[in-house]
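quick one, 236 residues, struct below
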Amino acid sequence: MPNKTAETFNLLAKTYAENVDNDSPYNAFYERPAMMELLPKHLHNNNVLDAGCAAGWYAEALVKRGASVTGIDISPRMVEVAKQRLNNKASILCQDLEKSLPFENDEFDVIVSSLTLHYIKDWEFTFSEFNRVLKPHGTLLFSVHHPFMELTHFKCEDYFEQRVISDIWRKQNITIEVQYRGRPLQQIIADTVKFFSIEEVVEPQPLEIMKEDYYDAYKYLMKNPHFIIVKAESKK
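---
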């Protein structure tokens, strides 16, 4: 059966390739700076897994910090785009995060997963695989949609139930329906602590430079959380 997430991001691959660096201020001035701030400035001698690498922005940024990077994504076309961007500076594979990962135990020092896990129904298997391939005391850093954003932006009859959310994305050259899964904050925390010890939970705020060209979005993000970031350590 075709995977709907893979199909969606196959269609988005071209616009990601052309516009991923600057298409969304929510990425460029909000989520990415906050995520990168939680990682060491120098990642030499670190093996890093970019889980849900999309068009390769994080993979490239991690390579620039000295890491040996492996990127995985469920979309074959996104994988092609990421390979073109990285130009053999990282290993990029097509992989479903809901299936067993093709890596050895204790292979990675860090796993970074940016705005990806909310496409997955059940985190337990995925997190068990993350824990398996991470070295002892390895780092998991992930971002997802903030439950507050989902509650206020979309019809939600029961905050405490996991639910499928349909959103319309208007990107350059394409308008497309995207579906993901909303879950309450307590579930995000509970699923994480089954395998990891949480070090930080961050509700980021945007860079001040964002207000120069995106004042309304900047004003909104200064008062309303849109994404949430969790940094955790493998328990093994």
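The chain has a mean pLDDT of 95.
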